[in-house]
Amino acid sequence: MVPQPIEGDAYGALLIEQWETGGALEIVERDDGFLMYDPAAARQYFAEPEQWQLLDAAAVSRCAGSVLDVGAAAGRVSLELQRRGLPVLALDTSEKALRVCRGRGVRETFHGTVFDLLDRQPERRFDSILLLRNLGLLESPAAAHRYLAALDELTTDDARVVGTGYDPYATDDPDHLRYHDRNRAAGRLAGQLSLRVRHRGLATPWFDFWYMSPDELERAVTGSAWRVAEVRKAGSSGYLAVLRK
Questions:
Q1: Using CA atoms in the order 222, 171, 45, 86, what is the torsion angle rounded to 10 degrees?
Q2: In this structure, is residue 1 part of a structural domain?
Q3: Fewest Cβ atoms nearer than 10 Å: which of 10, 56, 58, 105?
Q4: How many domains does the chain have?
């Protein structure tokens, strides 16, 4: 029998190893057993702005005022926003990731979700919320409005949400297409994923992540405090979206 990983902060352990040795490998497991890994993925969490992908740079350039960096990872974006003179709070559910952030010079961090932040600091407001590669945190059509409502409460009247995501339909990979069919058979949209991050003998808890098309994003925000103000595509599947109230 193949030994099962121990549940723990695998994501944070990955970032610490990459920070200390430069040789970590990120592995993401889908709930159908499919493993996804990119030898360069761990390095990207520490990339300098001149090494960023086009949409990453474009997303950061659209932030203004005080910024909430959701899913801050190793802090590359928070550090750049600080360099630009913007007040920024780096938020992550991984305490080890935030340890890396602070060690690299990020001034303010928060351990938890946006819901935790709203509970613990209910008076705090931001002008921009950054979901870099994290639009999928909306989780599902059913969960999206709760998440969008929390972002509404955390922001000023003229705030924006800036995020990047991937269109799941822009693929001909048979492994992904089979998962799309599996989702549809279960009454889910093609891009709804159940994932966990693995690192050595650890694995994070399973979590939901939604790769949505721009049209699905439009439908997700309908009836919320937000509207899609801008969509910018790059490559075959990546896109930037800006939401405004």
A1: -30
A2: no
A3: 105
A4: 1
- The answer to whether 130 and 100 have CB atoms below 8 angstroms apart is no
Tell me the sheet residues that pair with 193: 209
Q: Rounded mean pLDDT of 202-216? A: 98
Tokens of 133: 């590669």
**Domain CATH number, residue 31:** 3.40.50.150
pLDDT of residue 3: 77
- Helix intervals (H) in the chain: 10-21, 41-44, 54-61, 76-83, 95-104, 114-120, 141-153, 174-185, 214-221
Q: Which domain holds residue 75?
A: 6-244
On the CB side of 198, how many CA atoms lie within 13 Å of its CA? Answer: 17
Q: What is the pLDDT of residue 102?
A: 98
Whether 175 is covered by a domain: the verdict is yes
Residue 204 lies in a domain: yes
Which tens digits make up the pLDDT trace of 130-150? Answer: 999 999 999 999 999 999 999
Length of the chain: 245
Name the 3-class secondary structure at 126.
strand
